[in-house]
Amino acid sequence: MTPIVVRRLYFLSVVVPLFLILSSICLAQEEYLPYPGVIHLHSSVSKGAYPLRKLVSLARARGIKILIFSDTHLRRWEYGLASVEHGSVVKYGIKNYLEDFKKIRNEFPDMLILEGVEVVPFYWWSGSPFKKNLTLNDWNKHLVVTGLKQYQDYMRLPVVGNRNFTPQLKDLPFLLLSLSLIIWGITLFKKRKQAKFLGLILSAAGTLWLFNLYPVSTSKYNPYHGSKGYFPYQELINYVNKKGGKAFWAHPEITELASTGRFATINFYTPSYPEALMLTSGYSGFGVNMLPGTNHDLILAGGEWDKALMSYCQGKRSQPAWAIAEADYRGPGQIDSIQNIFLLPEFKSEAVYEALLRGRFYM
């Protein structure tokens, strides 16, 4: 036999069996057990039918062991100085929300109950209220975020309309400009009689600008100059990854088209966004509603998910994207209609986050 054949026989007879033995030992040390879970639930904090405790009780009665909540982070629309706000985690109080989870986890130690939020990173206005075609675009383009560690991580999510009293570097030029207008106006009003009116106008303009700026937005994008593509969404994904959390695109195949308003009509329009899977990176996966009648083109061969996976295999992405069964449960109805089965080496929250990162679950 030639030396090459001898080497190959040695590899097949010695190295491969050794590798299999070592692999079986490692697998035996870490046994994965299945646990049913539900991802994306809304409590009464954000227009769900039931409070947190009731939802957990319903899930426990159905044998669910893992719950990942995602109440709406912020439900506020701003148009100039006017704003409308509905129930959300921010309105309820982020600290209150997180404290509720601490209490409920102590009450249900046999379950893993993880907090999270559904986030609208960006929306933009088109049309005009005077022409009766004012439209709020991309309001329904959401990401589900879970695994953030600190209260401040939720408070500073880069979201249009999310305001904070602590200015960031991006805010300083605008704050300085508004203060400069106020000071300049006061100076003209005091020192030049012929410029009192101009000084008054400048001071008023600077004051209104400062009032509109402060508290400052955590996002560097504003909703008045059209679409910003996927830059605001990538900014959010990057922020969540930096804070150790996980971000999932929510319902990317759903199109929203609606109108509301008592005194002035506001149109809501969000086209489906399967292209988000290719135009963003760093997210952990995306939601799929598995109920009959839902469009599932995204997960079929040749779809956007295939392209994203191929991109990962080609080394163009740092991590793969996983499909999660997304309940988007608001009740009433059967809470366990849409489940994920998590494969965990131990029954701990950290193991759930690791499973989400590594794809150790199935629908």
Task: Produce a short descriptive summary.
The protein is α/β, with parallel strands linked by helices.
Q: Which regions have little confidence, pLDDT < 50, spanning 5+ residues?
A: 1-25
Helical residue percent band: 25-40%
Shape: elongated
The arrangement of helices and strands along the chain is: HEHEEEEHHEEEEEHEHHEHEEEHEHEEHE
Number of helices: 11
Largest sheet: 11 strands, mixed
Distance between the termini: 52 Å
Strand portion, in percent?
A: 15-25%
Secondary-structure topology with pairs:
Blueprint: H1 3-29, E1 33-41, H2 52-61, E2 66-69, E3 71-72, E4 76-79, E5 82-85, H3 89-92, H4 94-107, E6 112-114, E7 116-119, E8 124-126, E9 135-137, E10 143-146, H5 151-155, E11 163-164, H6 172-191, H7 196-213, E12 216-217, H8 231-242, E13 246-249, E14 256-260, E15 266-270, H9 276-279, E16 285-288, H10 304-313, E17 322-329, E18 340-344, H11 349-358, E19 361-362
Parallel strand pairs: 1-2, 1-17, 2-6, 3-7, 9-15, 13-16, 16-17
Antiparallel strand pairs: 1-18, 4-5, 7-10, 8-9, 10-13, 11-12, 14-15, 18-19
Helix pairs in contact: 6-7
